[in-house]
Amino acid sequence: MDVLKVENITKAYANHIALNDVSLSVPKGSIYGLLGPNGAGKTTLIRIVNQITGPDSGKVFFNGEPLSPKHVSRIGYLPEERGLYKKMKVGEQALYLAQLKGMSKKDANEKLKEWFKRFEIEGWWDKKVEELSKGMAQKVQFITTVMHEPEFIILDEPFSGFDPINANLIKGEIKRLSENGTTIMLSTHNMGSVEEICSHIGLIHNSVKMLEGSIGTVRDAYKEGVYDLQFQGDMISITNAMWTNFELIDHWKRDGSQIARIKLLNKSTVNDLLAVAIAVIKVEAVNEVIPSMNDIFIKVVENKSDSHE
Amino acid sequence: MNKTNLIIQREYLTRVRKKSFIIMTFLGPVFIAGLMSLGIYLGMSDSSVYNVLVVDNTPQISADSLSQPKSLFWKEFKETPQMKFQYTHDALTNAEFDSSAYSLMLVMREDIVTFPEAELVFRKLPSVKARSYIKSQVEKVIENEKLKLNAIDKRVYDSIRTDVEILSVDSEDGGTSYKQEQAMVGFGFAVLIYFFIFLYGVQVMRGVMEEKSSRIVEVIISSVKPFQLMMGKIIGIALVGLTQFLLWVILTGIIFTVVSGLILPDAATMAEQVQATQVAAEQATSDPMNQAVISDMAELFLFRINWPLMLGMFLFYFLGGYLLYASLFAAVGAAVDNETDTQQFMMPITIPLIFGFIVAQFALTNPEGGAVFWFSQIPFTSPIVMMVRVAMGFDAGTVWQLALSMALLVAGFIGAVWMAGKIYRVGILMYGKKITYKELWKWMRFNS
Questions:
Q1: Domain identity same for A208 and A148
Q2: Which CATH architecture has domain B50-160?
Q3: N or C: which end of chain A has fewer CB within 10 A?
Q4: In chain A, how many domains are there?
Q5: Chain B stretch 220-239, residues whose beta carbon is closer than 8 A to a beta carbon of chain A
Q6: pLDDT tens-digit profile of A272-298?
């Protein structure tokens, strides 16, 4: 079951196309990383899902129903450009935002008190937002995003502007929410955190969806038959021993061992590589190199850009 | 609708609770009432006592064989508690005058009857009232002398002397017309509307810019439609304006009553004195006009102005004009990133507003002119110009003009709100771009 299903969305502005026939599905309970370089169309997509703007064509489904204003209270949204009313008191403001999301004042009050306790910021209730530091205000804003317990939360660049400690706190909260069954979509440039917390990703580049799927499938799909061969012996002998079926990409030393990164060519297998290697060196270990999200990201984006030129 | 209410509530409460609102609410009436009381106080309270030395050089003549010879003005002036007269035949030098106890020295020419001229020497410039009192006294004596010289009976002269008052009569209702005076009252309301639209329209613009530049707007419009947010803000601020207006009326009333109560005993005696002075001054002509003028003013305020219509129309045109302009101000606030960029878009909004103010001033001198008619119909100027015409009243033949103007204003603000909504929706999410009019035109044609 997909919490969010986007079908063939196209959105054009006066001078450029922001989304071109994009389809995505966000499975229930997943942490979905929406990736793409700046200007790819991520924010436009997020705004369409939040009904801030509408698509020119295409459909959006929320839990199988066509997206409509009644779903607003079931979605939480933390925009990339964050802000609060500077002159308003923290508690008052959080109450206001909660009520706009459809909570009653009483429920909102209780829920907020709980969250303020969790984040250990009870003392901020009567402070004006302008008295808070940027990181503090971001915490408050994170609370206002999740306090109405939406089943689907969209976080646009959730870690930007947080120091490492608070970023970790937020990461922990995202995981906790996910364990409780909340579906989360987040856009980020931080590929490390994508690998750490995301279960699924979708990559948009130049207004077009380039790839989508669970992290495992995506990384498997981008495996290129590259192996790290750890051995004792002479680097030159293994280089000389390799034929056209293997390509030495890189090599380095670690803890007294040699490591060669080798790409298998022409449908050769690991066994073939080992057969060759064993003859000339003492093999210690062979590991398949699984591409990092960072590598995949760069690969997809650069290839696409090349083909454009 | 519920969410719009929430927004209205927030906009209203955050502003009403502001220190600046509370200060303005209290200082405004103190200022207005203070100004009014000061005006009245100053008008009544020229309390200084003038000691006038009358230097009478006119020839001493006996009126008849029995009486002592005396000069023309000798002991002829009527004294009041504020005006004391001493008589002499010899003028003091300026130095002597400066060290004397007299506050004024009135020096008559010998031939004043032929050349009516006198000098008033002062250390401190006397009030207009004191001067006109002295003038009236001198004139009265000379007049009497001339009557005597020409052997005209004073009673005959009084019956000849004529003071004509021209009353304007409206051919349609046959009543005496006070349109000019009524127009003045309407102009007062026009000024109020002008200021309120400006004051609160700019607040709407600032509010929109605050939401845009603090970036909270994106969170809010993920919960409500941009149009709801815009209207919530506009309506919330309108309520702030009405609250302030109402508080001003009430507080001004209270303060004015209290203050005039405090100075009233004083004021009452003052008024008596003024009355006495006037009676003395106008004894010669025994003019009942003053009384009439005062009651005319009262009649104008109480009966000539159709107050329920006036206040009803004030509310209607204030709200209509405010909605029209505030939505335009909101569109400007949404289109720009910071205050300095507002200039180019403010111009086309402020010009019609100021123009309406100017036409309203024309309406004072020529209330039924063509320009006044047209600009009382155009929604951009009608909230201001129409106030003057409402004060003058409508009859069966012209009431359609009021109806048409009202209908046009409603159409005008609906159009403005619709247009502003379109610009607002696009503008609030547009950052770091210098906006041109061409761009705004594009926004208006976007679909959501």
A1: yes
A2: 3-Layer(aba) Sandwich (3.40)
A3: C
A4: 2
A5: 220-225
A6: 888 888 888 889 999 988 888 888 888
